[in-house]
Amino acid sequence: MHIMFIPSWYSNVRNKVHGSFFKEQALELQKAGVKVTVAYNEVWPLTMLGKIHEEKGLKYNVEDGLKTYRYKNYNYIPKNALMFKVFNKRMEKLYKEIVKKEGPIDIIHAQSSLWGGISAAYISEKYNIPLVITEHSSVERGPYVKNSYVPFIRDSYKKAKKVITVGNGLKNEIQALSGRNDIEVIGNLVDLSKFTIKKRIQNEKFIFFSLAFLEGEKGFDTLIKSFAKKFKDKEAVLYIGGDGSQRSWLEALTVENGVKDQIIFLGALSRDDVSKWMNKCDCFVLPSRYETFGVVYIEALASGRPVIGALNGGAEDIINNLNGYLIPIDDIDILAEKMIEVYDNIESYDEEEIRIDCLKRFSPKVIVNKIISVYKEVLK
């Protein structure tokens, strides 16, 4: 079985971790015996004109053990739906080169419709190869989605033999957009090798940990207000990892709410740092207003930590009565109550039980087996 694996965004010279979970999925599929060839249309923005010192055109390399074909060039007609015709032709060059060098393709698997899935649908239809699209992003909320793009996105879903979404909230959205009622939910593949249980240290103070880009949809303002409501007189601290446009405002909010000394901003963290903080903390909390999935929740659960999240479309597939709480979006009072409940009852959480439940549902092996089942179904 030969899969042409098309990521919509991927690692590059300027961002080594971009699309890292796509690469992790491709690697795990390869480990499971699937032949995977990555085809990436690496589009450079015109704002980088003269700043990128790489050769344009078709390039091949083995990257982290994956055969990877890239077509590198600028997007000369940005924010215009005509660019998809250009992208389709670039993807066709990649397809022809892969078939020539690696042999016939059995299935095209695109990660998200925008951008890779649209070109994947073009190749699928022209060369009669079944297409699978795994959608990771919201079309309704996507910051790069223009109205003129939506017909192309919808068309790619309709041409796909199978559409997968990473969460049930996203499934409902894509179902309404595409008119399909056969969409399957398979979560993101998360490399959990760095996230294991290390015996919880008896911290001098109870540690809440949160991690995300410091942007509006992540709900850090709600978290700060909830923490301030119940923990001013408690031996507790909140560490926030990540950086973003709201950092200064959020720091000012801690002063305004009288918890400046109890809430510490850590800035951007490496995956090794994240692993250390998941082990160091007593509870992970992130009341995002919207998630398509929620990788950090799974990393916390794999570390045996209870988790508090919001009813945001992604967390509902991950958090249950065994491992934590789900709260209504932006409900400061209920979030504060649930944080106090975990604080008061931390010993009632079984680290091993939380981790085992997480691995049963989200380990790489489980996710890969589900994807391979889809491939087999598509080839019937």
Question: Can you walk through the features of this model?
Answer:
With 380 residues, the protein is of the alpha/beta class. It has helices at residues 20-31, 83-102, 113-127, 150-159, 168-178, 220-231, 247-256, 271-280, 295-302, 332-344, 351-362, 364-379; strands at 2-7, 35-44, 57-63, 66-74, 107-111, 131-135, 162-165, 184-185, 206-211, 236-241, 263-267, 283-286, 307-310, 324-327. The protein folds into 2 domains: 2-191 and 363-379, 3-Layer(aba) Sandwich (Rossmann fold); 206-361, Rossmann fold (3-Layer(aba) Sandwich), CATH 3.40.50.2000. The strands form 2 sheets. The chain has an 8-stranded mixed beta sheet, sandwiched between helices. Helix 1 links the parallel strand 1 and strand 2 (35-44). Helix 3 (113-127) crosses helix 4.
Task: Output the keywords.
380 residues; single chain; six-stranded parallel beta sheet; Rossmann fold; eight-stranded mixed beta sheet; 2 domains; 12 helices; globular; alpha/beta
List strands and helices in order, with pairings.
Elements: E1 2-7, H1 20-31, E2 35-44, E3 57-63, E4 66-74, H2 83-102, E5 107-111, H3 113-127, E6 131-135, H4 150-159, E7 162-165, H5 168-178, E8 184-185, E9 206-211, H6 220-231, E10 236-241, H7 247-256, E11 263-267, H8 271-280, E12 283-286, H9 295-302, E13 307-310, E14 324-327, H10 332-344, H11 351-362, H12 364-379
Parallel strand pairs: 1-2, 1-5, 2-4, 5-6, 6-7, 7-8, 9-10, 9-12, 10-11, 12-13, 13-14
Antiparallel strand pairs: 3-4
Helix pairs in contact: 2-3, 3-4, 6-10, 11-12
